[in-house]
């Protein structure tokens, strides 16, 4: 089994209207890892995602999945799209049916599965996102956060290995964010590789194992989250500050309160370290 | 103006359904060919139907001060072509019956014929004619939209008159009655809809 | 949308749409088969009572839903009852001979058919009805339009509502002239969205491996066959009653 | 001049579909202050805003503006809406014109101003949000953050006294947030009263003078931001944690590193306090 699930090698793409999508972009996503792609609006995150799923085809460069170059024939695309699930940012632009269960059945039916398997997959996927009771509900009566979870269920029902989410936290309030993070944690626990776009460096640091920086259509760096502190220059190059928690941790280490090697990921972590306890109460555990 | 559920006698309900069916079927064939060439058209038609449904629910400020709803048939015919409007209109009218109890299932055929066949083809025809007579773009749009609206309403009145001829004056007298009663709301509406459609196209031209 | 709300929250929400559709169809047949206005009115009353008490639709809501159709009926009745006389000088109105009989026939038939329609739509969500049409082999393309229309009309309604609110907040509807202009801008903006949304949905469909007609799994209804038999028998009884009271 | 600009007194509102909007809600906004309204989605923030602008009319209770009860006649509404500017959450739903300048001119034209004044106001408003160069651009080519600023300009062009923004930070990346905050600071400097909805307590604490808590259609408390620390119970009642920075400050005070009376509002503040400097580098100064 190949360790690297998805790989872009020097991919460039320019839209028909002339605007730049990707510019010599290389990126590798390891199987089973939690990844964040971070960059400003317009940096090319969405374009990159559409390459991962075969919706766009590189004009130069190559996309590899599980070691092999992507085959853009009908069968190849079908296989790629069943293994790489893509959740777009706006639920209103990807939910086709007004019935929750119907919409979730869309993907598996396109895979050509029989009715009984589809029914099972729909139930499982809705269960996985905590919407098991909502199958019969109309989409238009759901909250924004619930719609988002239906979108995820619609992709999960295709049983992807890699789940890509474009700005999943945007527009969600605190509670919905917690619920969504719990869902993602569960999926990660099942072995699904995750790749999220965000522009919140604090969230990225708290949640991810690997952080991919993106600017002007190019991945400028891939950093292990734990080593983010020593890569301030790379962050600054794409207009991002260091996570606040790192700045704080350093100041506290300077006062001798924390060991210089401590790597708290969130405020709760930092407090725990301050209180000399060894266990981490941070919701999003360290690697 | 939708003919309500059950208002037409059995023979008329069946007759108008049979009359509307070939137009809907023909429209579907046209659409199928378009989709073969450009697959994204499949989504376009469903979204267009939703657009027409929502548009027809808008409250239109009418010149007499009363409020009314636009039919959108003229706008739709000019944007999507009159042939495609028959199936789109059929779905919109079906949904209006099922979601709003406007119109009905037994009168669906009659309503499709007036609103999704006569209206759109009238709009397309009037627009072509007006343009060929060197009328300005805005005037052509106005005429197309308001006459499509007006002809829809004339058709409905004729449908009703045919079903319920006046015992003394026959079809003509009955037509005059139905047209007279609904003229109150329909003529100002036709003018408002014409104006609105011109404003829409003016705004579209700037995008 | 009052019908929409009722359809998702009534006692018969989980009954197979095929059974409800069968019974509603029988209602239509009974209304048209009824020879006398009184019989049709009886069927109308029965269906309305069944919907209000059986399915648990509040009577006030039922009347509000029926109101626009009743308004049409009132206007239409005017021209059935009165006749326009143009023979003797100035045109004048008078009671049409046989007008009241015609009103009774048409009015009771309309009310009956309306009651049958309301029975169906107040107990059955539109997505179930579309599922039923799918089962009845409606052309695929028409179903695609329906499914997308049903979903998207709520998206558009929300967009229209939000934009109307934003325009009102900036005084866009302060006078009728401004209102026409604001509404035109709103509709033009909505028109553009038709293409944008269609394109986005197309991409989203491809991402989920679609390459043709949109396929969905119709929901499963417990005891569907059983309910259909019951509905069929009840429907036959209704038709029998209407015909025998000729 | 009345000190209290906007006041809701026991306002209740239920939507036609039966859902609750406001429930006996009272709130007062002081002239010239920076206010945050914080609460979960569905708490009634948007409904409250629509009352402030006369879009909705209280079913019971009263809305006062500058001391007088709001007059819901045509002239009264025109006056209220020109004085209370409302910026909605989703820019795509409130920008409906082809070009930036055209959209910004919508409000002033509706006020019945002459062309020259409208032109001047449009230019000024675009200048104020840092979009002076963008007047001729088509709206749909702008970035999300730019669209948001055009929305604000569209309201500013009506020269409101009170500017209300619904979730202004949602969907903005780090840089855009900084830009938007700079715009808001400038407007506040001109004497415009500000009221923002958010569900981010850390942001609220950093930015606001007064924080209004909202839950289930009711304002449950109005707190001076500086005293937030002693009102953990009120926050918890509406499902909000204490701002992280307060928790940290307390822990550090417990270690004797900070004085117990220190009130840092953001990480930069906290660091400065740690470093024993007296000046506050926090961008959003203390009151």
Automatic annotation (TrEMBL), chains A, D:
SMART domains: AAA (SM00382). The keyword Protein biosynthesis does not apply. Keywords: ATP-binding, Cell membrane, Membrane, Nucleotide-binding, Translocase, Transport. It comes from the Bacteria. Pfam families: ABC_tran. GO terms for molecular function: ATP binding; ATP hydrolysis activity; ATPase-coupled transmembrane transporter activity. It is a peripheral membrane protein. One of its GO terms (biological process) is cobalt ion transport. CDD domains: ABC_cobalt_CbiO_domain1. It is found in: Cell membrane. Belongs to the ABC transporter superfamily. NCBIfam families: cbiO. Part of an ABC transporter complex. Responsible for energy coupling to the transport system. This is ABC transporter ATP-binding protein. It comes from Dechloromonas denitrificans.
UniProtKB/TrEMBL annotation, chain C:
It comes from Dechloromonas denitrificans. InterPro entries: ABC/ECF_trnsptr_transmembrane, Cobalt_transport_CbiQ, ECF_CbiQ. It comes from the Bacteria. The chain crosses the membrane at residues 12-32, 38-57, 69-90, 110-129, 224-245. This is Cobalt transporter. Keywords: Cell membrane, Membrane, Transmembrane, Transmembrane helix. Coiled coil: none annotated. It is a multi-pass membrane protein. It is found in: Cell membrane.
């Amino acid at each position: 089994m190949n360790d690297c699930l998805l790989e872009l090698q020097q991919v460039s793409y320019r839209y028909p209207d002339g605007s730049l999508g990707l510019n010599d972009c290389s990126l590798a996503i390891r199987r089973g890892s939690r990844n964040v792609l971070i960059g400003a609006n317009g940096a090319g995150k969405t374009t990159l995602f559409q390459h991962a799923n075969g919706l766009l085809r590189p004009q130069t460069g190559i996309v590899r999945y599980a070691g092999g170059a992507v085959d853009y024939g009908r069968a190849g695309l079908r296989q790629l799209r069943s293994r790489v699930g893509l959740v777009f940012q706006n639920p209103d632009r990807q939910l086709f049916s007004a019935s929750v269960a119907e919409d979730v059945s869309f993907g598996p039916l396109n895979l050509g599965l029989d009715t009984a398997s589809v029914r099972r997959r729909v139930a499982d996927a809705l269960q996985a996102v905590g919407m098991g009771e909502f199958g019969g509900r109309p989409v238009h009566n759901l909250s924004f956060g619930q719609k988002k979870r239906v979108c995820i269920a619609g992709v999960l029902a295709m049983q992807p290995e890699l789940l890509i989410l474009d700005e999943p936290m945007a527009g969600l309030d605190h509670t919905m964010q917690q619920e969504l993070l719990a869902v993602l944690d569960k999926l990660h626990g099942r072995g699904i590789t995750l790749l999220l776009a965000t522009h919140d460096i604090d969230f990225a640091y708290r949640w991810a194992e690997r952080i991919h920086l993106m600017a002007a259509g190019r991945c400028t760096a891939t950093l292990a989250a734990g080593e983010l502190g020593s890569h301030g220059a790379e962050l600054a190059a794409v207009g991002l500050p260091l996570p606040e928690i790192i700045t704080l941790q350093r100041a506290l280490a300077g006062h001798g309160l924390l060991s210089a090697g401590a790597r708290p990921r969130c405020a709760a972590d930092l407090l725990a370290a301050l209180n000399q306890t060894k266990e981490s109460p941070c919701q999003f555990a360290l690697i | 103006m939708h003919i309500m559920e059950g208002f037409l006698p059995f023979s008329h309900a069946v007759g108008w359904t049979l009359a509307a069916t070939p137009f809907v079927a023909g429209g579907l064939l046209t659409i199928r060919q378009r989709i073969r060439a450009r697959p994204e058209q499949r989504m376009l038609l469903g979204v267009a139907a939703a657009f027409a449904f929502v548009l027809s629910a808008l409250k239109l400020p009418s010149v007499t001060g009363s409020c009314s709803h636009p039919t959108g048939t003229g706008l739709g015919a000019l944007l999507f072509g009159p042939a495609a409007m028959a199936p789109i209109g059929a779905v919109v009218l079906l949904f209006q019956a099922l979601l709003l109890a406007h119109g009905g299932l037994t009168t669906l055929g009659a309503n499709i014929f007036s609103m999704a066949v006569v209206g759109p083809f009238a709009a397309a025809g009037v627009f072509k004619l007006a343009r060929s007579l060197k009328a300005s773009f805005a005037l052509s749009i106005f005429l197309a939209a308001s006459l499509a609206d007006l002809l829809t309403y004339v058709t409905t009145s004729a449908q009703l008159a045919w079903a319920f001829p006046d015992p003394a004056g026959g079809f003509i007298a009955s037509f005059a009655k139905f047209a007279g009663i609904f003229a109150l709301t329909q003529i100002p509406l036709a003018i408002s809809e014409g104006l609105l459609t011109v404003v829409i196209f003016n705004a579209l031209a700037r995008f | 949308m009052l019908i929409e709300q009722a359809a998702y929250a009534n006692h018969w929400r989980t009954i197979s749409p095929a059974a409800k559709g069968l019974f509603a169809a029988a209602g239509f047949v009974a209304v048209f088969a009824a020879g006398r206005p009184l019989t049709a009115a009886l069927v109308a009353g029965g269906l309305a009572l069944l919907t209000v008490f059986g399915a648990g639709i509040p009577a006030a809501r039922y009347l509000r839903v029926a109101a626009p159709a009743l308004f049409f009926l009132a206007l239409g009745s005017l021209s059935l009852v009165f006749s326009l006389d143009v023979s003797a000088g100035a045109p004048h109105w008078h009671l049409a001979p046989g007008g009241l009989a015609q009103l009774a026939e048409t009015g009771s038939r309309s009310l009956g058919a309306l009651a049958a329609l309301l029975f169906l739509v107040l107990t059955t969500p539109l997505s179930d009805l579309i599922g039923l049409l799918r089962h009845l082999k409606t052309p695929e393309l028409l179903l695609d339009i329906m499914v997308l229309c049903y979903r998207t009309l709520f998206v558009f309604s929300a967009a229209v509502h939000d934009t109307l609110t934003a325009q009102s907040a900036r005084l866009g509807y302060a006078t009728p002239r401004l209102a026409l202009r604001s509404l035109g801008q709103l509709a033009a903006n909505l028109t553009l969205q038709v293409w944008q949304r269609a394109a986005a949905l197309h991409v989203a469909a491809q991402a989920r491996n679609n390459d043709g007609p949109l396929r969905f799994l119709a929901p499963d209804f417990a005891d569907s066959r059983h309910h259909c038999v019951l509905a069929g028998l009840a429907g036959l009884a209704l038709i029998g009653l209407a015909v025998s009271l000729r």
